Amino acid sequence: SSGINAEYGQVEHYKDLAERVPGLEAQVEGLRVKEGKLAEEIRKLHKEVDEATAQQPPSVHQYKVIQQKVENMERGHATKVKEYTDIIARLEKDKVKVVVADEHIVKRYKEQLIEKNLQIERFQGELDSIISLCMELQSQGIVLPKKGKIF
User: Distance between CA 84 and CA 55 in Å, rounded?
Assistant: First the structure.
């Protein structure tokens, strides 16, 4: 019983995780939009660098500052995309666990139900044999004592 409760708790946990998937997917979509904006900013920065080099030779320091900004933006974006991709992969894996756990619990309940049905059938068989024995004794004229009056 405590094992079933633990499995039930796990199933509930996985259901909660699975319910969070749409929200995370929406966040990923938001990140994709943000990625597009960041890509546009990167293109603008590259264009600014190109325009700056065309108009005047930039100092090495100016060029390195712009290059560092672009690299920082690319790293930050790549990190966020990886985080959300990992979260979605983990939640997809957890969805599979929930389905497997549900199937396992259903199988376990079916097995328990079959076992209980067999116990009931055995009990009915025992009752039937006791009743037939009592009827046989009655037909032979043997009176069985009532409950509590054996002697």
Answer: 41
